[in-house]
Specification:
heterodimer; A: about 240 residues; four-stranded antiparallel sheet; globular; B: about 350 residues; mainly alpha; 14 helices
Chain lengths: ~240, ~350
Amino acid sequence: MLSLRNISKSFGGVKAVSDVSLEIEKGDVLGLIGPNGAGKSTLINLISGLLAPDNGAIYLSGKNITLRKSYERARLGLARTFQNLRIYPNLTVGQNIEVAEISSQYSERKETKNLDEIIHVFDLSDKADLASDELSYGHLRRLEIVRALALNPLVLLLDEPAAGMNENETQELSNSLRWVQENNSCAIIVIDHDLKFIMGVCDKITVMNMGEVIASGKPNEISNDARVKEAYIGH
Amino acid sequence: MRIFQSIRSFKNAVWGASLLSILVAGIGLLVIVFGEKYHLRLVYAAYVNLLVVLGLQVFMGNTNITNLSHSAFMGLGAYVAAICVTPVTIKKLSLPDAPWGLNTFELDAFSSAIISLTITGFLAFLTGLIIVRLSGIGATIVTIAILVIVHSVFMHRTDIFKGKQAFFGIPQVFDLYSIIIISIGVIFVARFFRESKWGIQLRASSDDDTSASAMGVNIFNLRLFAWTLGGLILAMAGICYAYFLGTISARPFYFSHVFLTLAMLILGGMRSITGAVLGTIMITFGLEWVRFMETGPVLIGIKFPEMLGLSGITLGAVIVLIMVLRNGGLVGNFEIEQMFLKGRNVPKV
């Protein structure tokens, strides 16, 4: 479904992402972990089109999208959230979701959408008419995810969705994401520093360090990998 | 193709535009019934300014990019219509050296208006191709450049525009009734655009263009559409101006008018159509009072001194105070129907 082939990106002399290749298929939930500065968010920005790679190619459903603009990729089925919340403060909660829902109408995908159900699962049903600044932090995080899902995506990119959430909120988010995995046909890539959350939600995990992929596998394999322990866990 | 994403948006647009139309038409009808001839001219000018403010709101209010070229597009609309509609006998006299046979034909008022809208709309589209590639201060500086270029052409191509001299002999086509009807039409257009699918996406991009782009919003196309639509409304304002006054000159389409109408939009609140209408009404009435004070009147037995230039100072002060104290304007995101319809809350600015 989404395929990254030898993607590299440098800022000045610093290699933020170096020769990264990834494959993710329909229904997969892939965790992307690594220490700060490992290149995870840069990789998400490269996939979503906010940054252009220096080398390599990105394919979505067999289509080369490397040169496509950010809004075109969104319409083709790449939806994302942001590490720092990027809600539209002058729109209501419902209108925030409508922004993406409108874009989904330009898509060629004609799958039935269950947006009302998604809004319900993420506990935003009774909040559509609220001003977005009336939502709690946890609900703002959920709103970003619902907004991304309103695009009816093929791949959902979540950049630290549990950041700043307490344990209960994180657990609820895990349950909601599990529901999305079971009820939507999209693949999900999640970045987070909360390993318990990542291990609980993801089927596969890719570990990055210094811009490179150093390990990839199932959660239990990753937690026993010596390179991962050295770079990230084992301290 | 659906214009609105939800029934709620459509309902709000219809209710809001209808209520504002009643307010705007009510004021006009009161003046027609009770006002003197002087008041009719004053209120007609206020309606022209309302059209300009609405034209300004369509782009500025939905994109959050400051536009200072609006009076230039109004001027273009006025001159193109005037050149087309003015009788040949008068043009031979006033524009003896006009190029391209401009003084050899005359058209009816409707055709002239259509030509004016087409030419001004096309120029808005062309300039829009530059503006929408920029953002923030860069875009605003380009709009100032457009204003200065258009004004220079008006002033120095005297064979077409007569520069500082009056372009006279334009038939008086419109009266107060005509502009009330046009204003209502434009209120509906502006409000429908704001609540439309494109309006919502454009407002999202004004809050956060990176996030909007990642949500599939084609910001370039939407901004270009809003800029061109705004240009057409401004051209309509110019046509109304020329079709009532009968005489136009280049001077009114410059900085002082830019600031007057900008103050109206900023005072009311540029994100809302209600704000645009409210700001226009408040500044119009407020300035009349200030102009009265400028003359040094005697009030309650006290002789006030002459205060020439007070209106300019007042407009400047209004812009400064609103920017400092309430930079979303008096109403922010509020629209008039929210006083009557239950539901949607108003995001604070």
